[in-house]
Design brief:
- By secondary structure, the chain is an alpha+beta fold.
- The protein has three domains: 76 residues, no CATH class; 65 residues, no CATH class; 38 residues, no CATH class.
- Helices cover 37% and strands 23% of the residues.
- The protein has five helices and eight strands; from the N terminus they run E-E-E-E-H-H-H-E-E-H-E-E-H.
- Strand 2 and strand 3 form a beta hairpin.
Length: 196
């Protein structure tokens, strides 16, 4: 491939068609190359069949039915790849990577409960107005910026407090933290608004 269309100083692309026998049709693919350096560097990959870079450029081939310019397709692909962080959170914070039983139905139920819990925590942040809207970009990642369950656990549950007896009633008294108080007040008013 001699001719590349430059999108920036580090990103260029080229389209080509390849005929796939099993599909009985030609598909158009986009090759993206991203410049790593001006001179070759030592490669840090351990692939036996091929290396995705030559020390100067890193290459990627994308097949998509989207009609986007190649640089926008690259940003869209990278935005979709952001789901890897969500999968990591699902596995780490919600126990999705555990196999607790020796039965298919039990493991399926466990993973469905993990997914449901993940979605409920995300939905709670939307309902309580805790999720911040993100600016629209070409990568088209999430519309909102969510806090991880670990962050929520640290901010809400791991709070110093004590139970005191006030007029015959036991009351949980937290340490004086203005930011936490404002956060709890926002949650309370948001949930009251939903219940009305």
């Amino acid at each position: 491939m001699k001719y590349w269309y430059r999108h920036s100083t580090t990103l260029s692309s080229r389209k080509f068609s390849i005929f796939i026998d099993s599909w009985g049709m030609a598909v158009e693919c986009t090759v993206i190359r991203q410049k790593l350096s001006d001179k070759g560097v030592a490669k840090n990959v351990q692939l036996d069949l091929f290396t995705p870079d030559d020390g100067i450029y890193e290459y990627a081939v994308i097949y998509s039915n989207k009609t986007l310019r190649a640089d926008h397709l690259w940003e869209f692909y990278n935005g979709r790849a952001a789901m890897e962080h969500q999968i990591a959170e699902l596995k780490g914070e919600f126990g999705f990577d555990a196999i607790p039983t020796h039965h298919y139905q039990g493991n399926s139920a466990y993973q469905l409960i993990s997914q449901l819990t993940y979605n409920l925590v995300r939905n709670f942040q939307l309902d309580a107005r805790l999720a911040q809207a993100r600016p629209r970009t070409a990568s088209r990642t999430n519309l909102f910026s969510f806090a991880s369950l670990g962050t929520l656990r640290f901010e809400w549950i791991a709070a110093a407090g004590r139970i005191i007896n006030r007029s015959g009633a036991q009351v949980l008294k937290l340490c004086q933290n203005e930011r936490r108080r404002q956060r709890f007040e926002l949650i309370r008013t948001s949930l009251d608004r939903l219940a009305a």
